[in-house]
Amino acid sequence: MSGMDEDPRFRAGERANASGVAGQRVSEGVAGQRVTDDVSRAHRHVFSRAVRFGDVDSLGHVNNVRFFDYLEDARLEMFHIDLHREGGTPFRGLVVARHEIDYRRPLTFRPDPVRVESWVTEIRPVRFTLDYEIRDGEEVFVRARSVMVAYDVERAGPRRLNPYELSYLRRFTAG
After folding, report:
1. 24, CA 20 to 30 Å: which among 13, 15, 128, 133?
2. Nearby residues of 94 by Cβ (< 8 Å), 6 or more positions away
3. Is 35 inside any structural domain?
4. For residue 141, which phi and psi values (nearest 5 degrees)?
5. Domain encompassing residue 138
6. Largest distance between two CA atoms of the chain
7. How far apart are the first and last CA of the chain?
8. Domain of 84: which CATH number?
9. How many domains does the chain have?
10. Which residues contact 117 (CB under 8 A, 6 or more apart)?
11. Residues 6 or more apart from 161 whose CB is under 8 A from it?
12. Cα dist. 157→5, 27, 58, 73, 130 in Å?
């Protein structure tokens, strides 16, 4: 079992509206009571990713290792491409310190892309945590988490997140 199994964010079924703002999540609590999480303001970054023929293995579904490529593509868009499009400064020097991934359902080759939804669940001075879902409508194929560390390329070591980066990250938190 991964650490995500104990995290209520991963047991609840969250739905995002068209603007990317997630609705309130409801999960089954103790003795079947419905419990709501306070993540209704969480803003998710949404990246559309085609399932490529080369992603599919001999079993007919996307190979488990390929899902890390999906997460990487979503991070590249979130921290570089989107900021460039907005006229902002892309993040420079982020490294992955940890990945966790839970495979929920097989994903097979298909003509329509899947959504890689990403949001920030924790911000610390030199690192932050991203949670993800790879999904299509109601179906969740993967739930994952990455711990990202701000990295000083010139010094070859960790650095503090700057105010601009912190502000950008807060756009994707629960408030």
Report:
1. 128
2. 75, 79, 148, 149, 150, 151
3. no
4. -90, -40
5. 45-170
6. 55
7. 29
8. 3.10.129.10
9. 1
10. 16, 44, 45, 46, 47, 132, 133, 134, 135
11. 123, 125, 126, 128, 150, 169
12. 32, 41, 40, 24, 21
- Encode pLDDT of 3-57 as tens digits: 444 433 333 333 333 333 333 333 232 233 332 333 333 599 999 999 999 999 9
Q: Is residue 79 within 8 Å of residue 146, measured between CB atoms?
A: no
The distance from CA 24 to its chain's CA centroid, rounded to whole angstroms, is: 18
Residue 62 lies in a domain: yes
Residue 25 domain-assigned (yes or no): no
pLDDT tens digits, 69-124: 999 999 999 999 999 999 999 999 999 999 999 999 999 999 999 999 999 999 99
Q: Could you give the CA distance from residue 166 to residue 93 in angstroms, rounded to a whole number?
A: 14
